[in-house]
């Protein structure tokens, strides 16, 4: 999943981001309500997690205006406010769930997974529950991958790279782009980690199939395409 966390407490934001990244998800964090609003409206996020008390614009206003602007991404509120009235108000703004602080990441993750399963099962939601290319299929919610119906077991970074490629079929992804997306490096560590990861993924996705999908363009990058 691609997740946006709008939270001004750096400790909580880091805690949430770290937890989801360990499950192979891509996470962006932002501390300001105004910035979060624009990122959520313009970004292609599968899930938005919003704190209520934010600088610039409070979380409830962010959610209301996002819904008014046509944003259909599932949203979870994080809040220190525990009263029934606060929870009702939060849900009435357009959020899909409400979790009070302090919370455990395992509960947040379980709620996110349940929410994604529920929403992806609804007809005509506009939520892309599965990604596919040719006979290769990836489910971001269940973290499962199949090709021609055969299950393929992937490590978290292999899964993250494949999801990235499936979201960009036919597009050449440079090593820098992959480093930024999979490892979240903003610099080149001068290693061959990308080549090694692509090699491992190719061995699992292409090795036993006649049609090869993962291709290397030497000196340029990698692309998901047919021969």
Automatic annotation (TrEMBL):
The modification 4-aspartylphosphate is found at residue 51. Residues 2-116 form the Response regulatory domain. Gene3D superfamilies: 3.40.50.2300, 6.10.250.690, Winged helix-like DNA-binding domain superfamily/Winged helix DNA-binding domain (1.10.10.10). Residues 128-226 form the OmpR/PhoB-type domain. It comes from the Bacteria. Residues 128-226 bind DNA. Pfam families: Response_reg, Trans_reg_C. InterPro entries: CheY-like_superfamily (IPR011006), OmpR/PhoB-type_DNA-bd (IPR001867), Sig_transdc_resp-reg_C-effctor (IPR016032), Sig_transdc_resp-reg_receiver (IPR001789), WalR-like (IPR039420), WH-like_DNA-bd_sf (IPR036388). The keyword DNA-binding applies. CDD domains: REC_OmpR_CusR-like, trans_reg_C. Keywords: DNA-binding, Phosphoprotein. This is Response regulator transcription factor.
